[in-house]
Specification:
The chain is mainly beta. The protein contains two helices and eleven strands.
Length: about 180
């Protein structure tokens, strides 16, 4: 059997010319598919008390320019520290356990007029559920079960795992960051 050299298809809508352009030539990391094995996750990421994050996909590990993906494990009977993820959109897929996501919301104009303060909202999840956390929204994870570990897969719209630990939860209002 002889080896045959394949030339790239000509540029068109399906096969763009990626040899140059505004950002220059592609780096070697951006010309191949990457495989990160389950036993090769990197624990050297930003952390929050009560949780353990592991990076799988990111700028440093695979050359990603616009996303980060990893896994978080939360021990039984744990309440994480309050935190947000900066300007990163965060999506969460619950693999196992029943993590609860807690954030504060405004009570609404009618209740606010009567002096009501922010309301703690608790999202109770289970395996197969998805959660979306918008940028800068303060929240925490809780695992009320004393015997169950929660494992979630996280994807972020930033190159690395952005974590800003906070002294407490607060309501994120429009125009505030």
């Amino acid at each position: 059997m002889t080896s045959q050299s394949l030339s790239p298809p000509p540029p068109d809508g399906f096969h763009p010319d990626l040899t140059g352009g505004p950002s220059g030539p592609l780096s070697e990391a951006r010309t191949r598919v990457h495989h990160v094995r389950a036993d090769d996750l990197d624990g050297g990421t930003a952390q929050t008390d009560g949780m353990r994050r592991f990076a799988a996909i990111g700028g440093v590990r695979v050359g990603s320019e616009g996303m980060w993906m990893g896994q978080t494990a939360v021990a039984p009977a744990t309440v994480s520290a309050d935190h947000h993820h900066g300007d990163s959109e965060t999506t969460i897929y619950v693999v196992s356990g029943h993590p609860e996501f807690v954030f504060l919301a405004d009570p609404g104009p009618d209740l606010a007029e009567r002096g009501a303060g922010p309301e703690a909202v608790r999202l109770c999840t289970g395996p197969g559920d998805y959660v979306f956390v918008p940028p800068f929204v303060p929240h925490r994870e809780e695992i009320p079960d004393p015997d169950e570990v929660a494992v979630v897969v996280i994807a972020r719209s930033t190159q690395e795992a952005v974590v800003v630990n906070l002294p407490g939860l607060y309501v994120l209002r429009s125009g505030q960051q």
